[in-house]
Batch of 2 targets.
Target 1
Amino acid sequence: MPISTPAPAYTPEVERLTRPLYERIRHVIPEAEWAVHAPLIAAINELKRDRNAVILAHNYQAPEIAWGVADYRGDSLGLAQHGAATAADVIVMCGVRFMAETAKIMSPGKTVLLPDYEAGCSLAASITAADVRRLRERYPGVPVVCYVNAYADVRAEVDICCTSANAVKVVESLGTDRVIFLPDGYLGRYVASKTKVEVILWEGACEVHERFTPQDIRDFRAGRPGVHVMAHPECPPEVLREADFVGSTSGMIRHIADERPKDVVLVTECSMSDNVAVEFPEINFVRPCNLCPHMKRITLAKILQSLETLSPAIEIAPAVAAGARRSMQRMLDIGRASTTD
């Protein structure tokens, strides 16, 4: 996406305005890099006030976005819930497209911007609405549970959504012997290991979490006695077996806050370690460097242009939005979901 205006300069005024932000994150962003980020951060923070906009950043966003311009950081459902609760006219979703769709579903009257419309997701792209209809034909009467990391048209076809934190509860709430679980096969296997319900899997996967191996975990532990390994349930089961804790992104953060381990490995997208390290500077984070190429399509320059042009804006067909809203609301009705991917 070309930038419509020249990048703003790092002036003494910009330095003054952004210095308090930098002091909090200086241990994760070098000073030389801040001179590049700060002018864009200052411009974005001024423009979002003019636009009555709220900026939401997923835990996997780079720290200059998550801590420089975001008003709220979290998992995808939490971001959408926060956006819906604000008085903002505009929501800027710093994440991937299914997250922006979730925000639009929950805030249909607001303008929802995704700074790069090509910010997709390998997991969400692994299944289509037509695939769900075929599954229903193959397994008549079996309810379909959909992880929220799916596009709106897929969520519109299912019975209920779930998050990685509440997936077991959602599956068991249906009161059936069998469920179809999609699109993440690894998360589905984790759910199956925690319930007596038969779980019929769709073999989608997140390209970031799928790359981790048990040897990676053993390498992280080598030479680091007592390191605390925390893995996301989108990882392969043999990786989860090597971990000390398995949980969603928000679950990991809560666990760190409760346990305060000295050394931590977060087996998930690399930028999350930087963002959590801002909140827990006393903890040493051993950083696995699996980056999400889709998340990294979102940059400060694209956020600024998105606010300037109020584009790309997310639009969802009314019937699709209504169906997706129904499956998401059914999830929320069985208990307040606090975490997701």
Target 2
Amino acid sequence: MNSTGNIPAKTKPAFRYYWLLMRPANLGIILLTMTLFMFHAAEWNIKDIRWPESLTVILAVLFVAAGGYVINDIFDIEEDIINKPEKRIIAKHLSVRSGNLFYAFLLISSLIAGFATGWAMGLLCIVMNVLLYFYASDLKGSNLWGNLLVSFMNGMVVFTSGWGALKIFNGYFAEYALMAFLITLAREIVKDMEDIEGDRSQEYETFPIAYGMNKAVWLGMSVLTALNVLILLIMVLAGSLWFNLYMIAAVILPVFYFYYSLLSAGEKADYSRLQKQMKLLMVTGLLSVVLI
């Protein structure tokens, strides 16, 4: 590696590093979410899916998300040396130049797919790309604003999922978007707690740094409590026995486990494990849409 942090030009990075840079597990969750809610919007009738538009809107969102992950890693080079030295890719397996070129490819691809869907989706892709770039360059180290932006973007995935359906019925889209927002926000708070050492070295002002770990724990628990209240509301409105039983087992009870985990956590590994478990909570929570 040279003094600029780039790997030597003669090194030929493997394709798998570009793949890993896009966070395939996260993209899989996005793909699953959009597919589920697209069919949910069409009341599970395949004839009510507009296939060209459904495919392009999914590709647009996936490209936007992948680009967001790449630009985030480009801006995070110094922080990741401390927070995740073994997992970092930019300036270790891929040069910064290669990362920037890959980001440009994903950005252009998202706009092509977005405008292929329609002007509204194309303009939305521009807005989302700008917000994700702004998050990576400025908001990420701010007190909650970056967390709120990422959470809002995840909630938007639910809304864009109905774009490929011929008709959209009242399927609790707002409630599920809020669910995705709250789970993501709780996970972002825990992730800031996990990354506090690297964030402090970059002079970030994340919530755990600004107010301390104890207050961050209580903020995370408050967000999780709001999630449980939302789930109870959906359970009352849905009125399905199997749906209610599933939500109790797959969301409400795990949230109580997260309360205990947050209160007892003290090491970086504890927060790392917890935020990964919250990613699983996102999946199990969104899967409940098939029971409504």
